[in-house]
Amino acid sequence: MHILHVLSQYEVTGAETYAAALIACQARAGHRVLLVSDTLNTPVEAEYLAMGIGRRTYPQRIHNVLALRRLIRCRCIDLVHAHSRAASWVSFFATRFSRVPLVSSLHIMQSPHLSLRLFSVYGEQVVSVTRNIRDQALRVLRLPGERVHVVRNGVDCERLAAAPTRADARRTLGLPEEAKVVVLVGRLSGKRTPVAEDAVSEVFPRVRRAIADARLLVVGGMKMPASFPALVSETNRRLGADAVRHVGHQADVRPYLAAADVVVAAGRSAIEALVVGRPVVALGEACYVGIVCRETADRAMRTNFGDFAERGRPDPATAAADIAALLRDRQRSEALAAWGSAFARRVYDVRRVWRRLEAIYVDALTLRSHAHRSATAGGPAWASSI
Looking at the predicted structure, is the pLDDT value of residue 291 above 80? Predict the structure, then answer.
């Protein structure tokens, strides 16, 4: 197939890294892949075309629809896969009155706009990265349940397996071998901002009081509040040591994950840390899952490791106690790391995800072909949409 992926974003997100891992798998399977997005910061095995998909003025959206129509026709695209609501909107109108189906991935909870209740733009098939997101889409968007599927985040386990050893990573990053290192990894913008701020100013100082040589590396921040560096400085001043280090956005987080004794993360960052073989404390923008283990695995999967659930900021003392407990108990940490790596590889390997998506693509092609024939034969107007 010739597949077109459409994204709308201005910094690295889980949707971008998900698409990159999926595209690599599709390219290895012999498919031709093209990607359209506002920006792109992750290397992909596909041709990339910049387009203002995330700009939502109606003149820009009309321009995007017409541009995608031309692209689909000129490049002989067989299927479009959209990765955001804005991407689904323009992709839906670009694919109507054609044989080209649309598959939409839901990476976040969808806003309950009246327009989406009245008119779906998500295409022939919809995939959700968690059960919570699927349940919300069925309830709020009223999408037909038989066309909304849970397909987990796919990560490139082979690439992550090439992470350096703990000792090598620490030498490269200038970290003492004996230090207790906590790594907080993820975006620092939007709804993640208060989570990161609390982790730095409220959670970590409690960890430091319990573990005297604990250090915190904050990895992320392509976009962040202007006040965040000052927050780090103020926390270090309160602690009387340079215990918190903000290293900024990193194109390759593997050395930082490998150097960690404990990783604090949510979403795909948590999954990647598990694959690398590090114990994870899941702290997301929606809820606190805690130490990822057999007992919390189901909740971690349903909430995307804390990003999608009931709202509520965690108790800093609880999060700090969990982190400190892992730092103290090396045997438990190693057992959790081994279990977590096997669990993440079994559930989130992108090759497994692609096999599931491939079947959904085939269903979308079949549905679109039938709808197109019905519409061109004078069938009802709604026959060409979901």
Answer: yes
